[in-house]
Amino acid sequence: MRNKYCLIWMLLFCCLQGTWAQNTVESIRKRYVSVKEYIASHVGTNENDGAEWAEFYHLEARQFLPATGGHKEDVYMYWMEREEDKIYPSHYLIFATTKYNYSDREMYEEYLYDKDGKVAFIYAHDPSWSFGENSEDKEYEFRFYFNKGKLLKTIIKNREFEQGEYKDVYSGSTPKSEYASYCKMLIDKAEKIRLMFIAIEKEAYNYSE
Length: 209
Hints:
- By secondary structure, this protein is an alpha+beta fold.
- The chain contains 3 helices and 10 strands.
- Helix 1 packs antiparallel against helix 2.
């Protein structure tokens, strides 16, 4: 049954690859949905023995820092198999999530990647952040869309902490100066996760025929 689902999703991904060659906001959104569905179908419990199985790497980091106390970060890196003539083909990163806490703030991020390893979409949630002088902390949502590494669109929303609906703060091709450093931080993190995935893949999945 699992092999059947794998074949179906591989065919679906092959059909969509042509549309991914040139990313648009709409094509990225469609791919985001399809990747989420793919991940959901590849995480579960074996029907025969009840064992859990999944197709991702999971890293958990814990540390205790002065003044702010304990911190925990979870990074999940989801992959697909490359189209290789091997018994055990290698993998490439398609999606990653991070969730971490800092000073009672829990941040969450998502990173969607193209087949060539470039980030196509970043979503970030920060419950307490301020931009600009004399601005108050608010809860933020960020969405960044990319085409082959070039930023296509930025959407930023905020609200009072857990109060009401998010309101649009900014929407455009290039983020305003006050958001530029935050955007760069996320782009840099997307690349760090990609390189970390490559390192883990070489160490943990070094199969040969």
